């Protein structure tokens, strides 16, 4: 069977996963690139797969496997692809950058960016209406990424095309995907050389470079290159599109939006529900089996691709009561939007902070914000696996 597709004009997940969870929780599917893989759709199985040592994420340059003269040169692993002791020591070094203390330092800076964008959007509005995507959801994640990681905003015409090519990889040839990846790695290496010449700084690249130069450091220069590539691939377009989808979900549930506006202390719980309800990533999560094993009667062989689907897991009625309903007060909420296990998304807390700040500032500045057009008339950007509204006309 083909991988279920998201219905046009929606963020997903595809309705077909409800049947698969019930009837075929492990099923062989044809992936968009023509390869086959085992789709895993139930919450318990998806959560277990992400933490299963028998499954590992292959290098982008190594899957599908090719041998001989056709084999591309290996690329540096992103944080998702690092394994074993290498992954453990890099994660130990990087995690403090996304901890509570560092995010407390970043919160007022992210808030200032969000306030500036809302004020500019209001100032440029015609007849009290504006596009919330172009004016707010789209520019904010890049500004946050530049501010935290240390990416030069003026270089965006260099690194963003490569990043977008990788995120839309299902429509490209393998050669085009790898060309974008190698170009992004080259850019990251050149940027790090610039940072090395600059000396001290407070952005993440400077901090990691300083750590890599410390005697006995657990971090190498190539790991800093991988960090930059990982943050671009995971922290840019996905945050733009998830923020747009989350805002649309709120605007189409006005009673819940009003409650959140009147009770802002509930923003943390609301963000967790938006992460569960709106797929953070509909893309294909490829894992490869290192040994044979059986799951729900299906024999998975060493070398087989295994594809856990978080968007399906987060709508599993065995894990969530009334899972297709948006409930901003849902608690507990053990979603798997950021994966699970050793490769749980390192930047998950930064994503939470960014989304919470975006919602909070919008409701403070524009307490009566509402859609300016019927929801069904909104055009959609379906250029990458995570679909999102292309525009979001609002008035206040």
UniProtKB/TrEMBL annotation:
InterPro entries reported for this sequence: Cyt_P450, Cyt_P450_B, Cyt_P450_sf
GO terms of molecular function: heme binding; iron ion binding; monooxygenase activity; oxidoreductase activity, acting on paired donors, with incorporation or reduction of molecular oxygen
Source species, domain of life: Bacteria
Keyword Hydrolase: no
Keyword Metal-binding: yes
Residue stretches spanning the membrane: none
Pfam families: p450 (PF00067)
UniProt keywords, alphabetically: Heme, Iron, Metal-binding, Monooxygenase, Oxidoreductase
Entry similarity comment: Belongs to the cytochrome P450 family.
Name of the featured protein: Cytochrome P450
Gene source species: Streptomyces caatingaensis
């Amino acid at each position: 069977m083909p991988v279920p597709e998201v219905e046009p004009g929606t963020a997903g997940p595809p309705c077909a996963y409800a049947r698969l969870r019930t009837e075929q929780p492990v099923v062989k599917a044809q992936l968009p690139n023509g390869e086959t893989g085992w789709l895993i759709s139930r919450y318990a199985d998806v959560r277990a797969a992400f933490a299963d040592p028998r499954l590992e994420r292959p290098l982008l340059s190594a899957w599908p496997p090719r041998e001989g003269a056709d084999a591309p040169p290996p690329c540096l692993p992103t944080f998702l692809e690092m394994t074993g002791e290498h992954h453990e020591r890099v994660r130990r070094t990087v995690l403090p950058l996304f901890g509570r203390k560092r995010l407390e330092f970043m919160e007022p800076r992210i808030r200032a960016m969000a306030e500036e964008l809302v004020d500019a959007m209001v100032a440029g509005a015609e007849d009290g209406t504006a596009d919330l995507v172009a004016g707010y959801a789209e520019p904010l994640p890049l500004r946050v990424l530049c501010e935290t990681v240390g990416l030069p905003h003026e270089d965006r015409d260099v690194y963003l095309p490569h990043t977008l090519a990788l995120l839309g990889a299902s429509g490209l040839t393998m050669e085009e995907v790898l060309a974008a990846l190698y170009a992004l790695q080259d850019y990251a290496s050149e940027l790090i050389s610039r940072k090395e010449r600059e000396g001290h700084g407070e952005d993440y690249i400077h901090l990691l470079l300083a750590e890599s130069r410390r005697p006995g450091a657990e971090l190498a220069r190539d790991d800093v290159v991988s960090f930059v590539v990982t943050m671009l691939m995971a922290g840019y377009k996905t945050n733009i599109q998830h923020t747009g989808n989350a805002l649309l979900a709120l605007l189409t549930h006005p009673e819940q939006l009003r409650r959140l506006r009147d009770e802002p202390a509930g923003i943390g719980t609301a963000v967790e529900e938006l992460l569960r309800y709106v797929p953070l990533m509909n893309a294909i999560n490829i894992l490869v089996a290192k040994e044979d094993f059986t799951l729900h009667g299906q024999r998975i062989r060493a070398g087989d691709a295994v594809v856990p689907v978080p968007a399906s897991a987060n709508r599993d009625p065995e894990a969530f009561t009334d899972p297709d309903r948006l409930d901003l007060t849902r608690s507990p909420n053990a979603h798997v939007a950021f994966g699970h296990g050793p490769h749980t998304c390192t930047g998950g807390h930064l994503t939470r902070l960014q989304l919470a700040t975006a919602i909070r500032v919008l409701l403070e500045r524009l307490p009566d914000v509402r859609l300016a057009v019927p929801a069904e008339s909104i055009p959609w950007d379906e250029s990458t696996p995570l679909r999102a509204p292309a525009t979001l006309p609002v008035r206040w």
